Amino acid sequence: MAKVLMKGNEAIAEAAIRAGCRHYFGYPITPQTEVAAYMAKRMPKIGGTFLQAESEISAINMVYGVSSAGLRVMTSSSSPGVSLKQEGISYLAGSDLPALIVNVQRGGPGLGGIQPSQSDYFQATKGGGHGDYHLIVLAPASVQEMADLTVKAFDLADKYRMPAMLLADGTMGQMMEPVELPEECAHSVDKPWALTGTQGKREHNIINSLYLVPEQLEEKNLERYERYKTVERDEVMYEEYMLDDADVCVVAFGIAARVSKNAITAARAKGIKAGLIRPITLYPFPKDIIRKTAENVKGFVSVELSMGQMIDDIRLAEECKKPVTLCSRVGGMIPSPEEVLKAIEDMEGGKF
Amino acid sequence: MAYTQILIAGFGGQGVLFAGKVLAYKGLEENKQISWLPSYGPEMRGGTANCSVIVSDTPVGSPIVSEPDILIVMNLPSLDKYENAAVPGAKVFIDSFLIERKIERTDIEAHYIPATKIAREMGIPTLANMVLLGKVIKETGVVSMEGLKDALAKTVSAKHPELLEANLKAIQAGYDY
Amino acid sequence: MAVVFKKPEALTDAPLHYCPGCTHGIIHRLVAEAIDDLGILGRTVGVAPVGCAVMAYDYFSCDMVEAAHGRAPAVATGLKRARPENIVFTYQGDGDLASIGMAETVHAATRNENITVIFVNNAIYGMTGGQMAPTSLPGQVTQTSPYGRDVKTVGYPIKVCELLSALDAPYYIERVAVNNVKNVMNAKKAIRKAFENQVEGKGFSLIEVVSSCPTNWGMTPEKALKWVETDMIPYYPLGVYRDKSKEAE
Question: ipTM of the predicted structure?
Answer without folding.
Answer: 0.93
